Amino acid sequence: MTKRTRRTHSAAFKAKVALAAVKGDRTLAELAQQFDVHPNQITEWKRQLQEKAADVFGSAGQSNNEPPADLKVLHAKIGQLTLENDFLESALTKAGLLSAKR
After folding, report:
1. Do 51 and 29 belong to one domain?
2. Is the terminal CB of the chain with fewer CB neighbours within 10 Å at N or C?
3. How far is it, in rounded angstroms, from Cα 78 to Cα 69?
4. Rounded to whole angstroms, what are the CA distances from 25 to 19, 22, 30?
5. How many structural domains compose the chain?
6. Which whole-number Å values give the CA distances from 79 to 69, 73, 83, 102, in the listed order?
7. Looking at the structure, do residues 16 and 51 belong to the same domain, yes or no?
8. Which pLDDT tens digit goes with each residue over 46-83?
9. Which of 64, 46, 47, 66 is nearest to 55 (CA)?
10. What confidence score (pLDDT) does residue 1 get?
11. 4 within domain boundaries
12. Tens of pLDDT along 14-24?
């Protein structure tokens, strides 16, 4: 018997197999034969899909890849930019390059 080399499956393939397992139309043995994957692997992918399904419908404004914004840093940056704008506005007004009217 020859030893099979380790295969890596794409996320799309894993999702396809796991969704087929969740449907329950076929047995694990049938799915394993169809997709040429061990039944234990199908069970694991199905479990992962069911555990992480709620993440798909998580908070709409927050992506899983982005860390939450640090509000203190953002407020400090807004304050700094406001000071810079006020300084530049007064300097340009004194130089006569900016009219007092807006």
Report:
1. yes
2. N
3. 14
4. 10, 8, 10
5. 2
6. 17, 10, 6, 22
7. yes
8. 999 999 888 888 765 555 566 778 899 999 999 999 99
9. 64
10. 67
11. no
12. 999 999 999 98
Residue 61 lies in a domain: no
Model pTM above 0.70: no
Give the whole-angstrom CA distance, residue 78 versus residue 100: 24
- Assigned domain for 40 exists: yes
Which pLDDT band holds residue 101 (cuts at 50, 70, 90)?
A: low
Tokens of 34: 């169809």
Q: Which long-range contacts (CB under 8 A, 24 or more apart) does 66-69 make?
A: none
Question: Do 42 and 28 contact (CB within 8 A), yes or no?
Answer: yes
Question: Is the Cβ–Cβ distance between 21 and 45 less than 8 Å?
Answer: yes
The answer to whether 43 touches 21, Cβ cutoff 8 Å, is: yes
Q: How many other CB atoms are found less than 10 A from the CB of residue 46?
A: 20
